[in-house]
Specification:
CATH architecture of the largest domain: 3-Layer(aba) Sandwich
Strand content: 15-25%
CATH superfamily of the largest domain: Vaccinia Virus protein VP39
Number of strands: 13
Structural class: alpha/beta
Helix content: 25-40%
Order of helices and strands: EHEHEEEHEEHEHEEHEHEHEH
Low-confidence stretches: none
Number of domains: 2
Distance between the termini: 21 Å
Shape: globular
Oligomer: single chain
CATH class of the largest domain: Alpha Beta
Largest sheet: 9 strands, mixed
């Protein structure tokens, strides 16, 4: 089921049935950033997000969770705005933050703050993960690829077990069974992911920016979140659909999708419809 709606999410959200969505994953607009689709003060942003969060909690199923991808910004060079951390604190206090998670854009280029004012390259966005502590998550569907070095060490250890110690003790005194760890990665088909997700935001295969949208989110990132927090056959929602990248991730993983976008111009709603329909036409469900 694909349900795409044109309009303001604040008007449409009350029409969506309660407890009907398994995961809501979205990249909302940020305050104090001028985009062609609008500008929000901190106060306006908070008013919008409080409604969005209240409606999202109503719409989510009991074991569902939401991810808000948010980028911090500055008052001026050398002074960060606090709205992101205040929002994270609000989620911890009034909802529940399942775990802190971050997206690291490994292709970020230096800006003037870094090249002219000696600051660091801004390359991380928060993935504010909100839901009940026992919310659905399937780590096995979102494992990371094991490194070649780890596979090599396991192979060598099995051929010559005397080369590597079975148990390693860290400087803090923690003991680790290397054999168990190596064998678990092979058995599970991957390794446990970190909460810092290194996905590039570049090129036609991983970002909606090439469609004309000014703030595209990489397909690899949202695909990972879909596999992780939405059960097979479940429903994913995005109240700020933009160019439809979230819908593509849902389709490619065999999930239903509800998307809302208020901008009816190239790079937004019509582009999202076109991209999602193309994904549906090319989708082939797994044989097993």
């Amino acid at each position: 089921m694909i349900d795409l709606r044109l309009g303001d999410c604040l008007d449409i959200l009350p029409t969506i049935a309660s407890e009907s969505v398994d995961a809501a994953i979205m990249d909302p607009p940020y305050p104090h950033i001028k985009r062609d689709y609008g500008y929000w003060t901190t106060e306006e942003w908070w008013a919008m997000m409080m409604t969005v969060c209240a409606e999202t909690r109503r719409i989510l199923k009991p074991a569902g969770s939401a991810v808000f991808i948010l980028q911090p910004n500055s008052e001026h060079v050398g002074q960060m705005r606090g709205w992101l951390w205040e929002f994270m604190a609000w989620v911890c206090r009034e909802w529940n933050m399942v775990q802190d998670a971050w997206w690291w854009n490994i292709t970020t280029v230096p800006t003037g703050g870094a090249t002219q004012h000696g600051l660091m390259r801004a390359s991380v966005k928060a993935c504010v993960w909100a839901g009940v502590p026992e919310c659905y998550r399937n780590q096995s569907a979102a494992l990371w690829k094991e490194s070649m070095q780890a596979r090599y060490r396991r192979t060598v250890r099995r051929a010559s077990p005397e080369i590597y110690d079975k148990v390693r003790t860290t400087p803090s005194g923690q003991s680790q069974n290397l054999y168990t760890m190596q064998d678990a990665a092979e058995r599970r088909g991957g390794v446990t992911p970190y909460n810092l997700l290194p996905f590039p935001n570049c090129g036609p295969k991983c970002s909606g920016s090439i469609t004309g949208h000014g703030a595209g989110t990489p397909l690899e990132l949202v695909d990972w979140w879909v596999r992780y927090i939405c059960p097979p056959g479940g429903t994913v929602a995005d109240w700020f659909m933009g160019s439809g990248t979230m819908g593509i991730a849902a389709v490619q993983n065999g999930r239903s999708f509800i998307g809302i976008e208020k901008e009816d111009r190239p790079g937004f709603y019509p582009t999202a419809v076109e991209r999602i329909e193309a994904a549906r036409a090319s989708y082939q469900p797994p044989l097993f």
